[in-house]
Design a protein that fits this description.
3 helices, 0% strand, single chain
Length: 86
Amino acid sequence: MVVPAASGALSIAAMVAGIIGLLTGGLLLVPELVATICGHLALRREPHMGRMAITGLITGYLDALVFGFVLLLLIFVPILASTGMP
């Protein structure tokens, strides 16, 4: 019986998606979601690739934080500008 080698595809996908999210400045939502979901799945299914999975998680959450900050700026800056507050 031949046992297939562990590939680590989820960990690699998480890390690559996180890096793509960083390169786009966190302005896309899809890489952040892919990085965090694949990172969490990889930690469970591929414990031997833990460092890559954690890299994907860190970059994914960092990208999501940047995305949320930009979204807040896009919402609140026009509101403050229209009220005349300095």
